[in-house]
Write a structure and sequence with these properties.
single chain, 176 residues, alpha/beta, TIM Barrel, five-stranded parallel sheet, 8 helices, globular
Length: 176
Amino acid sequence: MPAASAEDLIAAGADIMLVCLTLRTGSEDQDASNVEVFCELASDARRLGMPVVGEYFPARPDRLSPEELHDQVYRGCRIVAELGADLVKTFYTIKFSEVTKACPIPILGLGAEKTPKQLQALELAERIVQDGGKGVVFGRNAVQVKNPSAFQQALCDVVKRGVSPADAAAKHHLED
């Protein structure tokens, strides 16, 4: 069930719509329903001139081997693109460059679970970009830190300016 329609989002002042797709839920009926909802929301957004970020989440990613996660993300990103997304947000995988090369639209890599150290999050961001990701989407790793502003500045240095994670962490005085 959608949280909001494209019309609702435009009325609220939104400029872009995030639509999530989960497949391989264990129920073909649920998977089909998820695709149907994704298509309807993406179509409505496109009709209204609103870009769509397609968020691909494998069902139960914590139960997947790295190879299974990669396979599902690889296929899921392509499906999301073919269903009408303009951009994809998804998990980083062991062969992320294969995912980015196979998908006809830009891909953003997720920070996913909170890393123990800020430097590890910056290293993840660097890998995402080096493997063809057009950017990162970090939540916990960007805000659940002692100095979120400093971390986010370091993150921008890594993602946008190609600064090494260690140099960015030192420049912005990140602790841990």
